[in-house]
Every structure is written in C-alpha cells, then in structure tokens.
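ok here's FBD domain-containing protein, seq below lol
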Amino acid sequence: MRKKKAAAAPAPVPAAAKTKSAAAVPAAAKKKPLAAKKKAAAAVPAAKKKAAAAAKKRASGGTAGCRPRKRARDDNGDGDLISNLPDAVLCTIISLLPTKDGARTQAIARRWRPLWRSAPLNLDAKNLSTNDFKQPRRRQGRRPSTESIISRILADHPGPARRFDIRLPCISPTKREYAKSVAQIASWFQSRSLDNLEELHIHFPILRLVGPNPLLSSVLRFTSTLVVATVGYCDVSDEIAPSLNFPILKHLTLRYVNISVGSFHGVLSACHVLETLSLDGNSYNGSLHISSRTLRSICFSNCHMGKSELVIEDTPHLERLLCPWLDGEAIRGLVPTSFNNLICTVKVLALEFSCADLNAVLDVLRFFPCLEKLYVMWNKYLNTEMNNVRHYDPQDPIKCLETHLKTLVLKNYKGDKQDVSFAKFFVLNGKVLNEIKFGVSEKFNEKWVADQHRLLGVESEASPDLEFKHCSYYFRHSDTHDLSIADPFNNSFLAEDDALPVISCSSSSDEDST
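and the structure came out like this:
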C-alpha cells in the first residue's frame, strides 16, 4: 500500500514582511475610529445649518435661499424699456436708423425679429458695405456687389418704403454696361417694396464721353407720394416734364440736370407745397423765373446761366436766398423789376462776386429791407460784370443797413485796399451791425489783424458794440433743406484745426485798453 505524500510546508515569511504587516494592523485600526469621530463632528453643524435654512424658508414663504431665475431674453421687464414701446413706435425708430443698423435690430431679441419687415424701408446704398454680406461657405468667391445687395434687400422687405437713396457714382465705359445699369434701376423702381415711397435720392448712371441721359419714365410712379426728392445727372425732356406733378413734395434738389426754362417753370408750378429748392450745376437756356407762394429757401450753386437772368418774384414766404457760385450776370436778375416789389421776408442772403464790388452788393441789398445776415464771397475766377449799377447815395439810405443787418461775413478776405474799403463802408453805415467775420484764405497773425483794425478805424470810427472776428477760412454749409437751422452757413468760417488762428476783439474792448 502506497503512502500518501505529505503536504508541502508553507514558505517562510521574511522577517521584514512580518514586521510591516504587524505594524499595518494597528494603524488601520486607529484610522477607522478617527474618521468616524470627524464625520460625527461635521454632522452636528451641518444639521444645525439645515435646520436654520428650513426655518428661514418657512418664514419667507418658501423663496429664501433659492437661486434667482435668469430672466428670459425676450422678457420685457423694467430693464428693457425700449422693447416695451408699441410696435408702431419701434418701427418708426427702425426706419430712421441707417440701413445696416435697421436690419441688425432683428438680432436683438425675438420681440424685434418681425419689426424690420414691418417698418417702412430705409435703403441707402452709401450705407451698405459688401464686407458685411459674406457668401455662404459652399459658394465662396467674390463678395456680392452693391447692386446685388440692394436687390436682395428689396426682395426680402415687403414694403412700404420711407427712403431710397442710390446716389452712387456710376460712369459706364460702354453702352452695354450703361444699358445694364439703367435696366437695374428700372427693375428696382418696379419693386413692391418701394410702394408709397416718401424720399427718393438718385444720381443716374452716365455713359462715358456722352453725358447725362434721359430721365427714366419709371420714376413717375412715385410723384404722388414723394415728400423729398433729389434727381441728378439726367436730361428732363419737354415730353416727360408735364408728367412731373408733385402734389405733396416739400424739398426738391436738381443736380446737373439739363432742363429747358419752360419745363422747369412747369415742374415748379406743379409743386404745390414746395418749401425748399436747391439747384446745383444745372444749365438753362434762358432767364429763370422763380415764383412760388410756398418757398422758404432757395439755393443756387454752380448754375450756368451765361447772359441769362435769375428773377425772384411772388415769393411771400422766402426766408433764405443762397447764391454761392452763381456765374455771369445772373446776379443782376436777383433784384425785382420795381421798387414796389420788395422781398421783406428774407433774413439770410449769400452772394458771390469776382471782387469786392460794393455798389453791386448795395444794389441788391435795396430789395431786402429786413435782411439780418449777409454773406459776401469773392471768387477771382468768377466772371461777374455788373452793368447799370446805381451808386450809393447817402440821401437814399438802404433800409436793412439802418434797421436790421446785424452780421456781415466776408469770404476770401485778403485785406488789400479794395477789401478794406468794402468792409469799412459797413463799419461806418451799419447802424445796428454788431459782428463782422473775416474769412481769411491766407496766413495771418496778430500784427496783420492790428493793421487791419487801424485801417478799418476800429478804435476811432466803429461802434463800441461792433465785434470783429478773423478766422482761417474753409467753406462748409449745413443742409440747405433743413429749415430748423436758422443759419445754414453758421459753421462756414471756422479754423480747421488748432494751428489756425481765430482772433476776435470788439471796438469797445480796444477803446477800454487804450
């Protein structure tokens, strides 16, 4: 009988392991009661805090200790007062914003998203930048043209429109490109987005070496709704002129428009409530008569009239007559044909001559007895010859010099003998004159000003209330259609920067100093 093999004895444990194991047992035994003690100690204040929070919540009705709710983006609470306004008011605000900003209001909040399409469209091509209209990734390439952006906006907006401004310089080198531009404009005019258009500003494209082309007949669609209109760079034919009937038009600008005198008179007579008229760079084939019982402001700039006259008559509400850069002898026609037809409503008058022709200016002033502010601009390149001008007679004084003229502004003043003689006449004869501004086109200093004051008799002959200002000149005027501005030339004679001097003094201060 075979004997069973004895079981192998366990391997001996090293002495180091025995020591480590023996030490680990009491250490673990020590940690357990220590952790339990800490946990028990922490549970006591936590229970107290929880009980205190519960009591506070019961006392506050259940709202204390709760995280405040984040206000929804479209919540019209007190923090967003504008969004609380009625839709009609918000739509008016949007329609007054620049084109890009008006469209961006859709991203403000859900409340604003439908308002842009409900607001009257304000589309200004000058306010559009192709950089703001990126192509989708799948159609990477050149950025869209301004014309395509305008077409997209007109397609997205249902109308009506408040303002459409496409005064973009466009000179087409070929007949094909010109025809394309004209067809594009004609298609825009047929868009339903432009229904009930109130304000239209357009410069038509020009074919190189040919010049302006006929006014598009599609513009007639807006004649019954327009309140403001600017038309530039086109020919108004005698055939289309009778159709230009603007029953509610208040502000009209014609810029570089070829129109016959007869057609112009017909258009003007069809503007029954016109308040402001601006004619810039136009050509006329005869004497131009302005007659309107509603006009308050007339501005002529760069108008080519040759030997023709400009006659202002039957304008009982005229307040401003601005004639910078009016060439030829047209200035002679500004005066009425008889002494009985004075223009008593004009407060601001701007005239331009080739030199400081005092008698020519005085001949015009006779017919504006209530004039308060006079601008006289000297342009040596202007061919203005005044014929049959009456010389000033002290026995026959000019009424505005006696009772109304308070401010005289001289542009391109050089301080030579003729300029000084011109200005000194007003120093001596302007009975209520309290300010003379000298717009100096050349550099000057305090010594030059002191010499001018001596020649003008500031200390000895001028009224003590008369103030003299010498400024470096640059020409700038405000919108001549804005009747809320009392003086559209108010900022014309200013220093362009701090390096240019502005020297001001009054005759009373000079006398006091002496």
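fwiw The longest helix spans residues 15-59. kinda neat tbh
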